[in-house]
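Hi support team,

I've been running sequence recovery on a batch of backbones for a student project. Most finish fine, but this one hangs at about 90% for roughly twenty minutes before it completes. I'm not sure whether the input is malformed or the queue is just slow. I've pasted the structure tokens below so you can try to reproduce it. Let me know if you need the job ID as well.

Thanks,
M.K.
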């Protein structure tokens, strides 16, 4: 190889520069290894680093010195590469080489298949980054509920207005946790939208579509924000109406609650009327609040909204005739005190204990443990017998009838029936039972035994015990319980 060979000429001209570049790279590599080894160990023993790790409450105390050493190593490597690159550019012919490489890369990138492969690769990289970003976001938000609960126990107190507890601390913490979850979902949604925008921007076929979509989205957001800003005065009015209605209902509820307890009294107003009256007043207050809030609702002045309101009102007026009738009947039954919950009543053909009385229906449990729901309109049109109303205040009279022939002295019948009444558990001795002779038939006398009781809802059992006692008493008195009948045959009787 002669002295005029191009390689020998290149090494003679640029040999020192090449040696310097190689030396810089070698020194940089040695320094990086030293930084990741001895310097990291020394940083881990430094008192300032140890105290800083303890103050930050790091789970792994070595993470801070490792991170600092890694950062310094990267910075040193970048500085060494930059310094070596400067010397590399001083080599003769490097400019032409770089230009040739750039030209080759540009010509390769101009091929459609290569462009498509590169775009797919970039899309795949974007998807991987999206997954990593979503995982990172979830990890960062994972500790938010525990942090908020701890903050609630230590810092957050009940939201009160004077002596009224508006929102408890537990409810505030639940609201903050829900807000953090909502924020997490919004951040993930924004990340997904960003990924879609990046993928659409990578491919030339969809690049124009994403620009159009982003422009339309920006326009929609700006219009929505302008509409929201213009709606703020109406929103403030709605908030004031809702707040005034809420506190007015709390005040009304407190008044009627005190009336129900008996601590607050009004003339001719019974405590049992407090709850149904509060429900009526609450409906009226809410209806008034809706009327006041209607002009401030979004779109309330539009023809479509008004048309829907008229249509809903028409449907309500046509389809609620029975509904309104039952409500009115429920109100009338409440204030006429026809019966109360727990009373033993007979409504039409239904007898039993009143389980529930609402504005729409009345529920009754029969002695057979059947629960019957009767609309208040039917209750209003039927006759109502309230056995408990008299039994609780005074006494209830129960009666049963029996017919005995004329051959038995009526005094013996009276004595046997009164003896039977004494043997019944829920029959009162004072006032004493009494007997009425209600009918003198052709062949027998009808006797009616009347007894007194306070337990109106036990009528079937009392009647059963009373009939059993009558059978026992008449059996002991040797009196046969029957209604004799006599048949007379007139005319000539012929043998068959």
């Amino acid at each position: 190889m002669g002295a005029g060979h191009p390689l020998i000429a290149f090494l003679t001209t640029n040999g020192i520069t090449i040696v310097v570049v190689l030396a810089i790279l070698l020194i940089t590599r040695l320094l990086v290894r030293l930084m990741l080894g001895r310097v990291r160990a020394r940083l881990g023993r430094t008192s300032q680093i140890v105290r800083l790790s303890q103050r930050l409450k790091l789970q792994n105390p070595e993470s801070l010195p490792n991170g600092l050493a890694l950062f310094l190593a990267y910075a040193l490597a970048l500085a060494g590469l930059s310094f070596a690159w400067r010397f590399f550019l001083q080599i003769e012919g490097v400019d032409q080489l770089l230009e040739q490489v750039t030209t080759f890369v540009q010509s390769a990138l101009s091929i459609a298949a290569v462009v498509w492969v590169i775009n797919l690769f970039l899309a795949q990289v974007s998807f991987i980054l999206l997954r990593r970003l979503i995982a990172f976001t979830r990890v960062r938000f994972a500790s938010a509920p525990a942090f908020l609960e701890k903050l609630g126990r230590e810092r957050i107190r009940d939201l009160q207005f004077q002596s009224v507890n508006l929102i408890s601390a537990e409810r505030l913490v639940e609201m903050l946790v829900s807000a953090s979850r909502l924020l997490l979902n919004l951040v993930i949604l924004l990340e997904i939208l960003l990924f879609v925008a990046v993928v659409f921007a990578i491919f030339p076929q969809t690049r124009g579509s994403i620009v159009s979509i982003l422009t339309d989205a920006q326009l929609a957001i700006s219009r929505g924000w302008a509409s929201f800003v213009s709606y703020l005065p109406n929103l403030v009015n709605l908030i004031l109406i809702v707040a005034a209605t809420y506190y007015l209902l709390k005040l009304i509820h407190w008044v009627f609650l005190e009336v129900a307890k008996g601590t607050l009294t009004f003339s001719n107003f019974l405590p049992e009327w407090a709850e149904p009256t509060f429900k009526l007043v609450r409906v009226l207050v809410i209806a008034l609040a809706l009327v006041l809030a209607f002009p401030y609702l979004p779109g309330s002045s539009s023809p479509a909204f008004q048309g829907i309101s008229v249509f809903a009102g028409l449907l309500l007026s046509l389809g609620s005739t029975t509904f309104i009738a039952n409500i009115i009947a429920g109100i009338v039954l409440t204030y006429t005190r026809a019966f109360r919950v727990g009373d033993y009543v007979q409504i039409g053909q239904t007898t039993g204990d009143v389980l529930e009385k609402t504005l729409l229906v009345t529920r009754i449990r029969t002695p057979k443990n059947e629960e019957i729901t009767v609309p208040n309109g039917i209750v209003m049109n039927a006759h109502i017998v309230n056995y408990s109303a008299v039994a609780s205040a005074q006494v209830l009279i129960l009666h049963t009838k029996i017919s005995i022939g004329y051959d038995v002295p009526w005094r013996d019948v009276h004595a046997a029936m009164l003896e039977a009444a004494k043997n019944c558990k829920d029959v009162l001795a004072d006032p004493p039972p009494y007997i009425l002779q209600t009918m003198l038939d052709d062949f027998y006398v009808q006797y009616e035994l009347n007894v007194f009781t306070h337990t109106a809802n036990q009528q079937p059992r009392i009647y059963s015990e009373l009939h059993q006692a009558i059978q026992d008493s008449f059996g002991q008195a040797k009196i046969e319980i029957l209604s004799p009948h006599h048949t007379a045959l007139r005319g000539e009787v012929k043998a068959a």
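--
Follow-up from support: It reproduced on our side and the slowdown came from queue contention, not your input. The domain at 395-476 is CATH 3.30.70.100 (Alpha-Beta Plaits). No action needed from you.
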